[in-house]
Amino acid sequence: MKSNKGYTLVELFAAIAIIAIAMYAFVTVVIVLAIVTISSVSYIGFFKKGRLTHAADKIACDITYTQNQAMIEAVWHGVHFEPDPINTYYIYQTSGAVSAPEKDPGNPKRDFMVNTKEKFGVIIDKVELEGGAMSVEFDEYGRPYTSYNGKAISGEGSIVLRLGNMIKTITISPDSGRVTVQ
Asked: In angstroms, rounded to a whole number, what is the distance separating the alpha carbons of residues 137 and 26?
């Protein structure tokens, strides 16, 4: 009787095929995990950037709203900023001697006050208005001032927002009060 001390060609090819399929499955799983990891990191960054952009756009719209209210009502209106750690801004109307909070048009029972850290997770990093002011007020023509009794703003003012290492700057132009987000 003959003894078999080896593998047949079919058995050898079957073993190679099983190893190849296992390696293909392993490589596929590794590639999918790498793609998911990279995508989630990118998505988180995109989500943060979206929150920062939304906060900057909201503040820019609220400053423009304040300017429009001043022109529509022919009454001075202002926006006051409290930077980090308070991270709040509010809208008010003023006669110079007396200031009254503006009501939130979305909820007239509440004063128009926004905490950027609570609402967006965004910090008001710096308020750079002329003379170190923390407020910008608009006269009945929509011109920006640092206060009712002060002079018109002669240089560009800015509000700097921060979320992690990302920054957005809201600028207010002198004379026209045009608001832009950079």
From this structure: 64
Beta bridge partners of 123: 162
Distance CA 23, CA 11 (A): 19
- Residues 172, 64 contacting (CB under 8 angstroms): no
How high is the mean pLDDT in each 10-residue block of the chain (182 residues)?
74 89 90 78 69 96 96 96 96 92 93 96 96 94 91 93 95 94 94
Closest CA to 79 of 130, 16, 146, 154: 146
Phi, then psi, of 52 in degrees rounded to 5: -65, -45
Contact 76, 148 (CB under 8 A): yes
> Can you list the domains of the chain with their CATH numbers?
9-181 (3.55.40.10)
